[in-house]
Structures are given as C-alpha cells and as structure tokens.
Amino acid sequence: MTTRPSGRAPDELRSLHFERQFTKHAAGSVLVSFGDTRVLCTASVEERVPPWLRGADQGWLTAEYGMLPGATHTRGAREAARGKQSGRTVEIQRLIGRSLRAVMDMHALAGRTVTIDCDVLQADGGTRTAAITGGYVALADAMDTLVQRGKLKSSPMHGQIAAVSVGIYDGTPVLDLDYAEDSQAETDMNVVMNEAGGFVEIQGTAEGHAFQREELDALLGHAEKGIGELLAAQRGARGE
Amino acid sequence: MTTRPSGRAPDELRSLHFERQFTKHAAGSVLVSFGDTRVLCTASVEERVPPWLRGADQGWLTAEYGMLPGATHTRGAREAARGKQSGRTVEIQRLIGRSLRAVMDMHALAGRTVTIDCDVLQADGGTRTAAITGGYVALADAMDTLVQRGKLKSSPMHGQIAAVSVGIYDGTPVLDLDYAEDSQAETDMNVVMNEAGGFVEIQGTAEGHAFQREELDALLGHAEKGIGELLAAQRGARGE
Amino acid sequence: MTTRPSGRAPDELRSLHFERQFTKHAAGSVLVSFGDTRVLCTASVEERVPPWLRGADQGWLTAEYGMLPGATHTRGAREAARGKQSGRTVEIQRLIGRSLRAVMDMHALAGRTVTIDCDVLQADGGTRTAAITGGYVALADAMDTLVQRGKLKSSPMHGQIAAVSVGIYDGTPVLDLDYAEDSQAETDMNVVMNEAGGFVEIQGTAEGHAFQREELDALLGHAEKGIGELLAAQRGARGE
Amino acid sequence: MTTRPSGRAPDELRSLHFERQFTKHAAGSVLVSFGDTRVLCTASVEERVPPWLRGADQGWLTAEYGMLPGATHTRGAREAARGKQSGRTVEIQRLIGRSLRAVMDMHALAGRTVTIDCDVLQADGGTRTAAITGGYVALADAMDTLVQRGKLKSSPMHGQIAAVSVGIYDGTPVLDLDYAEDSQAETDMNVVMNEAGGFVEIQGTAEGHAFQREELDALLGHAEKGIGELLAAQRGARGE
Amino acid sequence: MTTRPSGRAPDELRSLHFERQFTKHAAGSVLVSFGDTRVLCTASVEERVPPWLRGADQGWLTAEYGMLPGATHTRGAREAARGKQSGRTVEIQRLIGRSLRAVMDMHALAGRTVTIDCDVLQADGGTRTAAITGGYVALADAMDTLVQRGKLKSSPMHGQIAAVSVGIYDGTPVLDLDYAEDSQAETDMNVVMNEAGGFVEIQGTAEGHAFQREELDALLGHAEKGIGELLAAQRGARGE
Amino acid sequence: MTTRPSGRAPDELRSLHFERQFTKHAAGSVLVSFGDTRVLCTASVEERVPPWLRGADQGWLTAEYGMLPGATHTRGAREAARGKQSGRTVEIQRLIGRSLRAVMDMHALAGRTVTIDCDVLQADGGTRTAAITGGYVALADAMDTLVQRGKLKSSPMHGQIAAVSVGIYDGTPVLDLDYAEDSQAETDMNVVMNEAGGFVEIQGTAEGHAFQREELDALLGHAEKGIGELLAAQRGARGE
C-alpha cells in the first residue's frame, strides 16, 4: 500500500483552520489553512452592480484570485507587473465565482456586488479548493454583517458549499492532495459540492494515464467524505 | 418525456461531418461540423520549441481557440481588437491543448512545436468539443504529412481522442447539446475520452440546481456512447 | 515577354467565386475567392451607434480584418493572443472601412452600426482587395435583409464598389497578383473604384525601383479593366 | 475660380524652412516647417540590428511618428498614456519608413539601425509629408556625420526623396493643403517621389465624391511640380 | 575646491530662457531652457472635468511628461510604441501635477480641466525642474488667455511656483545640476517652492553615501537662492 | 494642543511588531505591523541577473509593492485584473528598491537577484514606510539564510535602514501618521535613514499650505527620533 508523503490515510484531510476577521476593513475576512496552504479570503460589498446588470432586479457576486509572488517554492512573477493575469488564474477565479454564486439568491442581493478576493499567502497544493471553502465562510460572514447593519433583512444565501481535491497518487485514490502529491499525481480532480450532497462543479484532468470509470467512482467517494467534513468545519468555525 | 428542440433522441448526436484539407497551407486542416456548429481546425508544425523547453529532449503541442465575430447570433467583439482574450477563450484553449497532448509522445516530437488552431466559423453550441474532435483529425493528418515528407519515421501519436457535451435539459439527460438546449440547460458537462474508454477530462457545471450522483452516472453513460460514435466517425473520415 | 507563374495573361483576373449565406447568423455572409485567396466576409448590424455619434442623425459602418493563423505558408501569430493588432492589420481594416463607407448613405442608416468582418481563411495574395470586393456583397445582402425584415424602407447604399491589386512583375504590368507574384513584385498598387469609374482609393508602393508615370498609367488601365469585371461578377452573384 | 483660404495659387507651396542641428544629441536633427506645420525630425544611429536581421549582411531603417498633445487645435490624447498608438499613427510611421528606405543601401548600413523620429510640435495639415521631407534631411545629415566620424567611408544613400500632399478643394486641384483646406477637401492624396521623377508612394483617398482619371492627372501634375521645389529646397538647406 | 564641469560657481544657475507662445494652438505654450535642457510646456484647457469630479464644484489640473526619443545622448524608446509609460515618467508627471495644483484655486476653475504637457526636446539634466518652472509660465499664460476671452473674471492662480535641483557633486553642494554633474552626483534633490518661501515638494535621494543633516541644510540654502532667481525670471518673462 | 485621534504623543510611534518566518518558501519572510497597518514582506533570491547586468560583476535588488484589494476601507481594484500598476504603486516600489539597495554591496551579490515583495494585507496609513522597515528585516534574514546554506561567505549588507512618515496634523508636527491623520494632514513626509544617522531618501509634499523651514526642521527631528526606535526594534526582532 502507498504511503503518502505526509503519512496521512488515503481519505484523510489535512489539518484545517479558519481564522475569521483576519483583517478589519472587508465585511468578511477569513484566513483559511488546508495544512500549509494559506489563503486570505475577503468579501467586500459595494452598492452598485456591473454595467450589464443596470436596471435588472438582481445583484452580482464575482471572485478574483491571486498568488503572492513569494507564496511558492520559486518566486512567481507578479501578474500586476506583467500586466496580465495568467490563464490559470483566470480559470481559477471563474471557478470560485461560479461555485459561490450557486448558493446565493441574486434577487435578494439586488443593487449590490459582492467581490470575493482570494489571495494565496502560502501555497502547498489545493489553493483553489481552499479558496472556495474559505471564501464561503467570508461570504457568509459578510452577509451576516449586512444583516447586522440593517442593510438586509436576512441573508440572501440559500445553501452551503465547500470544495476539495482528489487524485490518484502512486496508483491510489487519495483525498486533499498537498504539493508533494499534486506534482506527481496521475489524475487530479477538483470537486465542489453543497450541503445536500449535490455536485456544483467537477473538474478532472488525467495528467498521465486516462482514468477508468471505477477510479472515477473511488475519487468521487473520497470527495463526498471530505466535503462532509469541510462543511462541518465551516459550521463549527461560524459557531453554527 | 422531453422533446428536444431538434427532435433528436436523448442519446443522439447531431449530424457530423469532417472536411479534410479544407485549406492548403497547414500540415493538417479540417472543417468539422457538429450540426450547425462549424469549426476550422488547422495543425501547423514549426521546427522549434518554446524557450522553456530548449535543451530538453521533447517537442510541444499547444492549442489556440477563437470565435469569429460574426459566428454568433449577435456579433461578438474581436479579441484582437480588444487586445485581450476572454477568460472563456483562455479556458477553452487550455482544455483543447491538454486533451490533445494526452495522445502525443512528446519525446518523439523532439525539436518541433505543433499548434492546433480552432476557429469557430459558426456557433451553435458545443464549439469546444467539436474543436477537440476535429482538432484530433487535423493533428493526425499533420503527423501523417510529416511521415510522408520523411521528417518523422512514424507518427508520434499513441492514442485517439474525442469530446462531447452532455447535460440535463428540461429534467432529462441529453447528449451533444445544441445552442437552444445549452442556453437552457441546468447542468452542462464536457467529457473527453480516448479510444480505450479512459477519461482524459471531465468538466461539469451545475448552472441551476446541483446534480445528484445518479444524474452524473446517466450523463457519463451518454458521453461514453457518444464518444464511441465520434471515434468511429474520425476513423471513417481518415479512411482507417 | 513575361510568363506569369499561373500562366495568366497580364490583364487576366484569377477565377472568382462568391458563396453567399456561407454562415447563418450574420445579416450578410459571403465567402469570396480570388483564386486560392479565400476570405469570409460577414456584415452584422447592431441597433446602436458609437459613443461619438450619439445624438447625431446618422449611422456608422466599420470594418475589421483578421488573418487566421493557419491561413499562410508559415503559421502567423494570433493577434488576440499577442494582445495587439499589427500595423498591417490596422492599415487594411481602415482601408476596407473607408472604401465601403463611400457607397453608404449614413443618414439613411441612422441609429445603426454595420460591422464588416473580413477573416482570411486562406491567403494567396490580394487579401485586402478580396475583402473589399466580397465585403461589398455581404454588405449589400445585409441591407437587403434589413429591407426584407421591414427595418428599412430601401437600401441605404448608393453605389457599387470593388477593388483589385495591380503591380509590376518581372518588368511587366499585371493584374490581380497572387502570392508568387506579390512576393517578387517591384511595385504593388491597390485600387478601389465604383461603378461610375471613379477612384475611391489608390495606394501604390514601389518595393524596388520607383515607378514612372507611364508605368502608373498602364497599371491604372489594368485596374479599370479588372474592376469592371469584378463589378459585373458581384452583380451576377447577387442576381442583379 | 477658387480662392484658397491662404490666398495661395493652386500650385503654390507654403513657405518652407529647414532648421538643421535643432537639437544636439541625435546624429541628424531638423526642425522642418511647411507653413505653420512644424515637425522635429531626428535621425539616431544604433550599432545593432533588429533580431530578425541578426546574421544578415544588412542594416535597417525604421521611423516613428508622434503628435505632441498640445500640437492641435483641441488637445489630443497622449498615446504613451493611453498605452497604444492610434491606427493613424501606425499608418503614418510605416509610410515614412518605407519612403526613406527607398533611398538607402541597406547593405552599406550593415550592423546599424537608423531610427527617424518625427514629432509634430505644431500641426496645420500635411504633417506626414513634412515628416518625410524633413526626415530625409535629418537622415542625410546623420549619414554625413557617420562619414565625418570615420564610421562609414561614404554615405549609404543612393537617392533623394520628398513628399507633398495634393487634393481637390472646392472643386479645384491644389498643392500642399493646409488644415483649413484639408478638413474640407473632397480628395486628399500624398505623393512621395525621388529626384529622378519616380514615384515611391501614392496614397489617394476620396473623402467625398470619387475622383475621375483627369482629376488624378491634374493632382499628379501639381505633385510633380511641388516635389521638384521641395527637392531643390532640401539641397539648398544642405548646402549642396 | 571643486571645479564644476561647466565652470559655474556652486550656487550659480544655468542660463535661463523662456520663449512664450512657442506654438499657437494651446492656451499657453512656453519653450523653457535651463542651459541645454529644453522643454516644451503647453497648457490646454478643456470644458469638462474627469469622471470622478462630475457634480463637484471644482475643476482639475493634471500634467503629463514625455521625453522625445532623440532628446538624449543615446536614443530612448518611444513610450507610445512600447505601450507603457516608464516608472520614471509616471513619477515625474505626478510631481509636476501636484506642484502646479498647489497654486491653483480648484473651485474658481470649476467645470474645466487644465492639462500641462511637458515634452523634453533636449535633455541635459534637470528636466523635471525645468518642466515645473516652465509649466508655471504656460499655466499663468493660459489663465490670462481665459480672462482675456471673458471665460474667467480673474485668474484662479493664487501663488507662484518654481523648482530646481541641488546635489552634492564631488563633495560640494551645488545648484542646478547639468547631466555631467547629475550622472556623477552622490546626492540629488529636487525642491519646489512658492513665492512666499514655502516648500511644496522636497525629493532627495542619496545615490552614493547617505547625506548628513548639515549637507541637507547647505542644499536647502542653495535651493532657496536658486528658486528666488527663477521666480524673478518667470516674472520678467511674463512682463510682471 | 492637538490631540491625535489615537491619543498618541506627537513623537510617539504606533505599536510595532515583526513576525519573522511568516511564510516558509521565501528565504526571508516578515509580517510587519505598524499599528493596524500590516505588510507581508518576502525576500526571494534567484540565481540570475537582469539582462542589462549580464556579464557585469554584480547582482541586483529590486522591490515590488501591492495592496490586496480588501486591504482598504473601500475595496480597491486588483491591479493584475486592470492590467496595469497604478502610478502610486510604481512610485512606492521604486522607493523601496532604492532604499534597500543603499545598504547592499551589489558586487558581493554577483550573479543573484533579490526581490523584495511587499504586499499590504491591511492598510491604515504608512504602508510604504512599514514596507521598507519590514523589508529590511526580510532582506537581512534572507542574506543570513544564504550564508547558512553556504552560498555566501558573509552577508553582503553593509548597513541598516528604516523609514517612517512625519507630517503636520492640525498644525502640529507628528510622527508615524495613521490613516485618520494622513487623510487630513497638511504636509506628509517620508524619511528613510540608516543606522549612522544619514538620510537615504526624503520625500515631502505639502497637501495644503506650503511648509516653512522651521516646520521642516521639526519634522526631521521627529523622523530622527522615530527611526532610532525602529532601528532598535529591527535589531531586537532579529536577536541582535
């Protein structure tokens, strides 16, 4: 049987931590840790909507993602200095936005835009799933803030959401890959699910050999278990 | 039971056509049609590798995707004039590139770069899956051209690949969505598979309600059937 | 006497073809062929005007030009990926726009913008003159479409226009240069004329030795002949 | 008969002035005036060639054009601040470069790049023709400087070149249009010729009605006369 | 004791010249010379304010700076062609704008934007201080023009401003460094002051060894003397 | 006498904290806090030099600065998404780089580039001075790391450096302005000094009324006191 570099069991998450109110200006601010991966997620609310929604009876939610240059083993280029976000960044922030919009009632948010900023302070694999999972907490906190300030009668959120990666490492399906595993994995899949067990996003890529249907089934089983634990941890962190 | 706008059965592909050697300069050139979706796929070979592969004993394959401004119901902005590819474009061309690299032996391609250009002349849903499926034919033709010209002893391709979309339309899992279905679908999934029944990519998104595991299973079943037919059609078009 | 690579007489056009309604979404869509040069011209109509014409009692017509990367002998860079249109592209699309505006009554088009997109699928010399000549047909078809849909009482076009290249190849003035000639020509001139024999644009460049007044006269004679044939072919294709 | 706003005869140039050595750093530096149009032309020489000429036995000449924001009646945007040169700028600088390359022996310039910078300090029509005419003087001065410094044995220039605009103003063909004429002209043509009476560039555009062959002939006659005078003035300014 | 390359005394300015109305379109236009440094400063007035001031009861003043490519010893890249202003340019134009805003009553300018364009025709050190000093004269001239045209009852300027560089060259504090000194200086400081002896900006940088408080005091003394002379010269040039 | 919003004495710094090794990948990583201003400073070392230093016997140090979108009271635009760094960002990162280069022996760093990334997690005034002060600690830590890894025999740093802001708030010169003060200050000055009491940078701007020489003297006195405390705190944090 495979030994994971971290010594974890195949279906074991990394240690998980949510530090709420990590910064003070944004309506929601959470530093989420999936092991050594640390992502600062802030949820900012603005009293306006994008041009293409003017006059429509709904609000909007969008996400932006960034990796601090010093967050990785070898320094990455600063995208602001290069004048362009990479294809990877664009793909990830689109995924985060779609995932969080899935639990938001846009009509109840009418006239407002929520922006979820996910900035990776330290990367060790799984930054996009940490961003979605932490971003949910920042978003829920921000909506509570609006309710407390009397700007909304109730939270416009109608569901809970979390994300995790699964993959095939050294022939074995494993949960929540860290960088040592991710860089060697034959298959990598990111799964986003809600609290009712429904799938919101599945993105799987065979890096090496194509994966078979039974491998896919095993991976989805790991993801369901892991997301159950992540959803519970989100509720715990939020005191629910 | 649902009636599809086109009158097709739930697991029925659109009419499929490959027009090989559609243009004369590129080593491979195929106009692929999935119903009214028409994509021009060319495979160009250059005798150089990207800077980050210099000195490495391998070649490279990359893909670029574009939508002609007049290809859609309402004219789209020209990305070259805007000075920027959209996030959607970037995502799609990364998917095409990863998918086709999965069947290519990069070492056998040493010193060369193949670029697959997929330009949508007319859009009616499923442009990315048509691009992968047609791109495979253009690529295989280009490799045959290199062999015929004596530049390669044998084709560096070690597999066959095709892609199709599946989704839940009006409550029913359906195969190969056209625009009328795609714009209404609750769930949309793109599946890329090889000739051995292995999955190379799965990208599923719940647009409306999250999908359940049994819906996912039904969608994967449709995809497996559809891809089988696409792979056969590719072989037929190539005279294999 | 010079033999042209194609065996054509000095004042002989390449075989000419207009395939109308090549795509279905744009109001006008024509695939024009000047020999092996093939350009897809679409005319799209939008019910708005550019910001600088708001409040003015007129419409607008603009053109955009692109070369598919695989259209040439050696693959060209995709301008959308480079983030910038080349100087050559900008020059050509400005020429196409000016030329077609010359036969359009902008007041009769009030409140609308027509965009002519000219995308080169295969290049073999003379792409800009093919684009103007085919663009005219797409534009005229689009205006007829607006009339048929009851959006305009009559076509706002008040003239017919076509374009051709002439040049000095191997010492002889020739009409409608293909790539083999164009790449060797000492002088290259693009001429745009209307159905009344008036000049709309002349752009001549001496690549090698400067041309004398009598050479210019010979070139203009060829252009007048060629454009007469192109105008007749446009009318034939349009069933006039 | 038409009266020109300036009171000039139809075939009369504006007052012409070349101020050589206007600045001290560039190898050639000329402030040229065509009436109130004033363009600073500098010719800078660098001991390197563009990447695509490395290893080739020739040098290169390129031109860049700019309009100072305060040079026009209403302030124009600064292209460096907008982050982009306009289509008009690109077109003009390509014309200047092609024109001056026509009188330069690139092999005799091997290993060097000459850049002609043409910056318009004050605009009153005809800036591109002033730039070519003044740019020639700056270029010839720079080549003489290289000879004096012992870097070249003799000047690599094999011809003389000048440019002028002609057009139809209020029904009459006129020479060297100023802004008051240019903004009203029905036809505008820029002509570049060498000292042997050969045409290097002709760019004519009908702004209003298309021009007839006899009008074209009259315009070319004016251009030939005007360029003769410009060539003489260049020689006078250079003390030849 | 140090001998300056120019032979000037340590507290001696270069010869100073203001050529007003150097160009005719802008409301104010001054060619300022600090020795061989020559900067064309124009002040253009537009009857609009930036978007972020709409509805506010004030006008705005902004500055832009550019260096002509041929202005320096070795040709500099054209920022418009590179598609980006350098960090140095941005820094300088922000400094010029802040400095001139310090003497302008923005409320009296309501509804208008003044743009000061400072373009360096020839560089020999101190271009930013020449730009501020000359920009003041162009601005004051432009405000007088508005008063003369009846657009303003009185000038909205409430002070006078000038700038100079000081630095430590070869161990000695000196005033108004030219390029020969600037490129060797251990410390370089730009000082902007008003007619009441108040400091508007101080920007000092130690290029080599850090400067001591007494050196700073000596530099400020030189600056106060030099600016007194510059303010007097501005008044002289303006006939005050 | 003025009461500062925070209740601090005029010459009192905010509470100061350095959290070293805040992240694990960069050679030096410090989270510095000046009160509620928190900046993550990382120092990354790469074994290469910029193109313009190739062949020269020295290394290089550069700095980049960014503000996370959620760091401020109202969300700021993400510069990577806008495709451009603001003028303010460029100015700040140039200042950080110049300041830290002042204490580095570039020859001892030959063949290497150090990049100091300063990313503001939370902003409350004085982010640039916190960045320089924290950046010094990250840099010194990174150089120690290189020595420990045997890549350098001794640290190439020859000095210590810190920065602080001073300004005139409500008529009183104060030290280390927070946002409440900074947004109201009449004058704002950033001072960078070394451990020997030498000035490395002074950047003072009068926002409202120009400051007099005696005010400048008072500000410099505060800065000297504050920097003395900052230098001591840096040594304390580093265990020196």
UniProtKB/TrEMBL annotation, chains A, B, C, D, E, F:
InterPro entries attached to this UniProt entry: ExoRNase_PH_dom1, ExoRNase_PH_dom2, ExoRNase_PH_dom2_sf, PNPase/RNase_PH_dom_sf, Ribosomal_Su5_D2-typ_SF, RNase_PH, RNase_PH_bac-type, RNase_PH_CS
Keyword tags: Nucleotidyltransferase, RNA-binding, rRNA processing, Transferase, tRNA processing, tRNA-binding
Pfam families membership: RNase_PH, RNase_PH_C
List of residues binding phosphate: 88, 126-128
Domain Exoribonuclease phosphorolytic: start-end pairs: 12-142, 160-224
Keyword Glycosyltransferase: no
Gene Ontology biological process terms from the UniProt entry: rRNA 3'-end processing; rRNA catabolic process; tRNA processing
Keyword RNA-binding in annotation: yes
Gene3D superfamilies, per database record: GHMP Kinase, N-terminal domain
Annotated catalysed reactions: tRNA(n+1) + phosphate = tRNA(n) + a ribonucleoside 5'-diphosphate
UniProt superkingdom: Bacteria
EC number: 2.7.7.56
GO terms, molecular function: 3'-5'-RNA exonuclease activity; tRNA binding; tRNA nucleotidyltransferase activity
Signal peptide segment: none
Broad enzyme group: transferase
CDD domains, sorted: RNase_PH_bact
Quaternary structure, from the entry: Homohexameric ring arranged as a trimer of dimers.
Protein family according to the UniProt entry: Belongs to the RNase PH family.
Function: Phosphorolytic 3'-5' exoribonuclease that plays an important role in tRNA 3'-end maturation. Removes nucleotide residues following the 3'-CCA terminus of tRNAs; can also add nucleotides to the ends of RNA molecules by using nucleoside diphosphates as substrates, but this may not be physiologically important. Probably plays a role in initiation of 16S rRNA degradation (leading to ribosome degradation) during starvation.
Name of the molecule in the record: Ribonuclease PH
Organism: Salinisphaera orenii MK-B5
